[in-house]
Amino acid sequence: MKAIKILPFLLPILLSSCVERTHKKEIEQRAVIEPDSVYVHEDGTVCHAQSPINILSSEQKDGKHNITFSFKDEINSVENLGHTVQVDFKIGSTVEVDGETFEFKQAHFHTPSEHLIDGVTYPMEMHVVNTLKGQEAGQETEFLVLGFLFKMGDSNPFVSHVLNSVPEEENAIKEVDLGEIQFSDFIEEGDDLLGHYYHYKGSLTTPPYSETVRWYVTKNIYEASPNQITSILNIEGVNARHIQGINDRTIETE
């Protein structure tokens, strides 16, 4: 089994401990997780497809998915939820994957990253959460989540706009004028926007940990400045769930 690499600057925040559902200021130590480990829900349900995971780049299966984005720069609010910084999308932006359409809902941040690549933890990860369009009432929500990992580097325009708009108070929301925060500063419209990615089926990384998520984690590592990453960390604290067992899941790469 490969050991988990912890970047030196993350050690102070990764050595504190917490309970499963605590997502602010404390985190369980991100120890090595056995590939066949499972998560037992509080109701006794044994879960075999939890997220996040340690993605091993040498143990992937080739897979190609047709992905098309159609989005408008219509972000209408930024929230300080205490445990994360969240950006809310106005209805209308979509991503189509293999003929199914998912609607943009929100983007939020985790510090440090939740997914590991070959045992490496990155200082930040952004999740863009989408839900399957046209689901009937009563159906369990199907999610498609795009994961973007960040390393320390140049200032990121999108992150800068978010930080300029996030409320100082916890559990507060700030409405923004349409166009004030440009998602196109981060990603441009067109086909195959994710470039190369890892794909697997998993779960939400916050309660209720529903195993109804199609994950697409980009291979490209984005940059944000140390000040930007630290600013988000100061707002939301350490809010990364520890890695889960892969079990018999297939991890695809493109």
Task: For the structure shown, list the relevant keywords.
254 residues, mainly beta, Carbonic Anhydrase II, 12-stranded mixed beta sheet, two-stranded antiparallel ribbon, disordered N terminus
What is the CATH homologous superfamily assignment? Alpha carbonic anhydrase
Termini separation: 24 Å
Strand tally, please? 16
- Compressed to H and E, one letter per element, the order equals HEEEEEEEEEEEEHEEEHE
The CATH topology turns out to be Carbonic Anhydrase II
Helix share bin: under 10%
Q: Approximately how much beta-strand content do the residues carry?
A: 25-35%
> What is the CATH architecture assignment?
Roll
pLDDT averaged residue by residue: 83
Architecture blueprint of SSEs:
Elements: H1 11-14, E1 39-40, E2 46-47, E3 54-55, E4 61-62, E5 67-70, E6 75-80, E7 85-89, E8 94-97, E9 100-110, E10 116-117, E11 124-132, E12 143-152, H2 157-165, E13 172-175, E14 197-202, E15 213-224, H3 226-236, E16 252-253
Parallel strand pairs: 3-10, 4-16, 12-15
Antiparallel strand pairs: 1-2, 5-8, 6-7, 6-13, 7-9, 8-9, 9-11, 11-12, 14-15, 14-16
